[in-house]
Amino acid sequence: MKARVHVMLKEGVLDPQGEAVRHALGGLGFEGVGAVRQGKVIDLELAEGTGEETVKEMCEKLLANTVIESYQIEML
Description:
single chain
C-alpha cells in the first residue's frame, strides 16, 4: 500500500523559493509567468491496513508544518 502527500505553503504565506524560480524563468526568456508556488511531494510505502487517518496523523505531527503549510493525501 502506498500514499502520496502533497505539501504546499498556505495562501498568503511568502514563498521565496517560488519567487526565485519565477525570477530565474524570466531570466531564461520564459515570459508570462505571474507567480510560482513551490511545494514537496512525499511518497510513503505503508504496511497493509494502514489507513488515511494514520497518514493524516503523520502529516500533523511531522510531514507538514500546519501553521504555514497545507497538505493533501492521495492513497494509491
